[in-house]
Write a structure and sequence with these properties.
The structure holds two protein chains of two kinds.
Chain A lengths: L1 E3 H11 L4 E5 L5 H7 L5 E4 L3 H15 L3 E5 L3 H4 L2 H9 L4 E7 L15 H5 L5 E4 L3 H16 L5 E7 H5 L1 E3 L19 H13 L3 E5 L1 H5 L3 H11 L3 E3 L14 E4 L6 H9 L2 E5 L5 H4 L10 E6 L13 E4 L2 H13 L6 H18 L12 H11 L5 E4 L3 H9 L8 E2 L10 H11 L5 E6 L10 H6 L5 E6 L4 H10 L15 H7 L3 E5 L2 H13 L4 E6 L23
Helix pairs in contact in A: 1-2, 1-7, 3-5, 3-18, 9-14, 11-14, 12-15, 16-17, 16-22
Chain B lengths: L2 E10 L4 H11 L6 E6 L5 E10 L1 H13 L3 E6 L5 E12 L2 H13 L3 E5 L3 E8 L1 H11 L4 E6 L3 E4 L4
Antiparallel strand pairs in B: 1-3, 1-4, 2-3, 5-7, 5-8, 5-9, 6-7
The chains are: A alpha/beta, B alpha+beta.
The structure holds thiamine diphosphate (TPP) and magnesium ion (MG).
């Protein structure tokens, strides 16, 4: 069949099962939009292209599908870069389609021309400039395949206007194969046997799981593995929800703001089974003493993650889900009757750590931000999808909301990108229309993509925004307090909008609490409303996030409240 | 300990591929001592040869990161005697009347060629391993080297005998 490029694009998107696109039109993509309007793919018109990418990111995480964006050339394309970088750091599958000036103008500094393939080369899994209409179908198919397979990630496809406007022969392609791309899903069974051997002999084992477990949908296998072997589990920020936060084996999050018992157990363990993690510096602290007494097992689909930051005794390259289910099978072959007795001392020690230094805060007559998150957890019975902005709000969300299931905590982990939470919540709400989606926000971060309120209202996406307003760039202020003698240079945010009126101006609902007694009623009212709501909580301004491991210090040396 | 390593890779012969490879080195703080690129017999495939200095851990990362690039089809470490290595240089040397005979004698001994002659200079073409090139340069230095263009090494694995 002879088809126009823009039609071919729509054909492939539909073949790939795309139901929703987050985007923003412009000159070179008018033709693509013209075709898009003829399909039943839903288009969410955002208010800024960065919002489109974060929304697609939230959509991908909540649905497990590939998130798709469509934007114009030049400024439309450059506005996507932050969102792409965030998705890249967190291995989120996205296909970002950018329009480009016509092929014959490329390189001429044409109107709205920018080398977006060059700009995004280091922050995409792969990217393409499509050079002819005949190549369009294969390229877009490859983009989806790359985005979702192996270690997932964002893939950008730059389509010049003449490529989408010209015609070419189109045939439906079955599957794509790339001779140079062959992710290793099957783990080496010999390596897994060694892991089982170590588990058998370990006295103080810990499991450390990360975002890879969530991406490969291996939470069940992980839970089975931990319960069978009675090994306590901690996760990175990205791994929250991979293991039930209400399980007795749960240690809490690891790292700079990890729990006392999680960080201490890393210092003391003799076996660390790490799965789908990449040992970010926010997790390891000082690397030379990280898990210094432990043999480290590292299971990951990306070989570059292994031995990048931390020496590893047993590397296993493979998919987390497959590896864990094979491990579970191998473990079934060994005798586990004496495991509970063997673990007694170790689990007892962990219990004592928990007893001496639990996550806690002191109530006062100001609203404590932790209290707001705790109440939110109670009122939602832990069932909401939580997105976050970045800073203290993000850490309190991670510490005080307990996640029992994967796909319910959506945060910009690797890039730590302020402005992520609201558009991500919008994307998650599109993916899960029947779920309650709450963005836990800071007063500063929320202003970075506040324009997306209009997107939520226009599309009847009833996202809830909980602003923990401390009038500060709180996390930066905390560092200034602790490490710069309280010199609060440029972190006091004197003037913010009236968030209640702002919500109303967007056609949403605004609520505000200034006293602890009002917290519950504001939350209860806000959460029950069928439209988007901003709930502002005037919190204790100089509250800090504890525990805290100063950057570069050993993980076991925590500042405590 | 940082040691020299030479690696070659077969890559898709497409625009932007070299930039991905080089961008990886600069972005991750890896070092490039030399770089050679040209098409292979298959016009869709190019061969890139890179010399880098790295310790074992960094080298492992470099190799894994390169393999991760979608356009890198095959990568091989060419360090050691299993591969033949050659580099080439064009050396423009001052050739005063009293030195001309001596220079030509050296050219002869090293089995290189004079490819350009002037009243005051020769341009000498030489191929060989790094040691040969260095030795030649040391001998020519006293005459005064005007300029030099040097390729990095290229390498091929020896076939089984
Ligand atoms: C886009 C971006 N710019 C700057 C930073 C650095 N930064 C990290 S946390 C933070 C403060 C955030 O303030 P707020 O949103 O009010 O959250 P709080 O820490 O007060 O809860 C800043 C500026 C960042 N992470 N992202
Ligand atoms: Mg703040």
């Amino acid at each position: 069949m002879i088809r126009k490029g823009s039609q071919i694009l729509m054909e492939v998107l539909q073949e790939e099962g795309v139901e929703t696109i987050f985007g923003y039109p412009g000159g070179v993509v008018i033709d693509i939009y013209d075709q898009l309007a003829k399909t039943d793919i839903r288009h969410i018109l955002v208010r800024h292209e960065q919002g489109a990418v974060h929304a697609a990111d939230g959509y991908a995480r909540a649905s497990g599908k590939v998130g798709v964006c469509l934007v114009t050339s030049g400024p439309g394309a450059t506005n996507t870069v932050t969102g792409i970088a965030s998705a890249y750091m967190d291995s989120i599958p996205l296909v970002v389609i950018t329009g480009q000036v016509p092929t014959h103008l490329i390189g001429n500094d044409a109107f709205q021309e920018v080398d977006i393939v060059g700009i995004t080369r280091p922050c995409t899994k792969h990217n393409y400039l499509v050079s002819s209409t005949a190549e369009l179908a294969r390229t877009v198919k490859e983009a989806f395949y790359l985005a979702r397979s192996g270690r997932p990630g964002p893939v950008l496809v730059d389509i010049p206007k003449d490529v989408s406007n010209s015609e070419a022969e189109y045939r439906q392609l079955k599957d794509v194969k790339l001779k140079s791309y062959n992710p290793t899903y099957q783990p080496n069974i010999k390596q897994l046997r060694k892991v089982v051997e170590l588990i058998r002999s370990a006295e103080r084992p810990v499991v450390f799981a990360g975002g890879g477990v969530i991406l490969s949908q291996a939470s069940q296998e992980l839970t089975e593995f931990a319960r069978k072997t009675q090994i306590p589990v901690t996760t990175s920020l990205m791994g929250l929800g991979a293991f039930p936060g209400s399980d007795p084996l749960w240690l809490g999050m690891l790292g700079m703001h990890g729990t006392y018992r999680a960080n201490m157990s890393i210092g003391a363990c003799d076996l660390l089974v790490s799965i789908g993690v990449r040992f970010d510096d926010r997790v390891t602290g000082k690397t030379d003493v990280f898990a210094a007494q432990a043999k480290i097992v590292h299971i990951d689909i990306d070989p570059t993650s292994i031995r990048k930051n931390i020496p590893v005794a047993i590397p296993v390259v493979g998919d987390c889900k497959i590896s864990l289910s094979q491990l579970n099978r191998l473990i079934d072959e060994i005798d586990l009757t004496d495991v509970p007795r063997k673990r007694q001392d170790w689990l007892g020690q962990i219990e004592r750590w928990k007893g001496t230094n639990p996550l806690a805060y002191k109530q006062c007559d100001l609203i404590k931000p932790q209290f707001v998150v705790e109440k939110l957890y109670e009122l939602t019975r832990g069932e909401a999808i939580i997105t976050t902005e970045v800073g203290q709000n993000q850490m309190w969300a991670a510490q005080y909301y307990h996640f029992d299931r994967p796909g319910h905590f959506i945060t910009s982990g690797g890039l730590g990108c302020m402005g992520f939470g609201l558009p991500a919540a919008i994307g998650a709400q599109v993916a899960c229309p029947d779920k309650l989606v709450v963005d836990i926000a800071g007063d500063a971060s929320i202003q970075m993509n506040i324009q997306e309120m209009a997107t939520a209202v226009e599309n009847c996406l009833p996202v809830k925004i909980v602003i923990l307003n401390n009038n500060y760039l709180g996390m930066v202020r905390q560092w200034q307090e602790l490490f710069y003698d309280k010199r609060y240079a440029c972190t006091y945010m004197n003037h913010s909008p009236n968030f209640v009126k702002l919500a109303e101006a967007y056609g949403a609902v605004g609520l505000k609490a200034t006293k602890p007694q009002e917290v519950e009623s504001v939350l209860a009212e806000g959460l029950s409303l069928p439209q988007p709501v901003i709930m502002e909580f005037e919190v204790d301004k100089e509250e800090n996030v504890y525990p805290m491991v100063p950057a570069g210090a050993p993980i076991t040396e925590m500042l405590l409240a | 300990m940082n040691e020299k390593h030479i690696m070659t890779m077969l890559v898709d012969n497409e625009p932007g591929v070299l930039s991905r490879v080089v961008g990886l080195f600069s972005g991750k703080g890896f070092n490039i001592e030399s770089l050679c690129v040209a098409e292979t017999m298959d016009s869709k495939v190019s061969r890139i040869t890179i010399v880098t200095k790295a310790n074992t851990e960094v080298l492992e990362q470099i190799e894994k990161q390169l393999r991760k690039l979608i356009n890198v089809i095959k990568l091989r470490d060419m360090t050691g005697p299993k591969a033949v290595k050659r580099e080439m240089a064009l050396i423009c040397v001052h050739a005063k009347p009293e030195h001309r005979a001596e220079i030509l004698r050296i050219v002869d001994i090293f089995r290189c060629n004079v490819v350009d002659v002037g009243l005051e200079h020769y341009i000498i073409e030489v191929t060989g391993d790094a040691a040969k090139l260095t030795a030649l340069l040391n001998l020519l230095k006293p005459m005064g080297i005007k300029k030099i263009a040097r390729t990095g090494p290229i390498a091929l694995y020896r076939e089984p005998k």
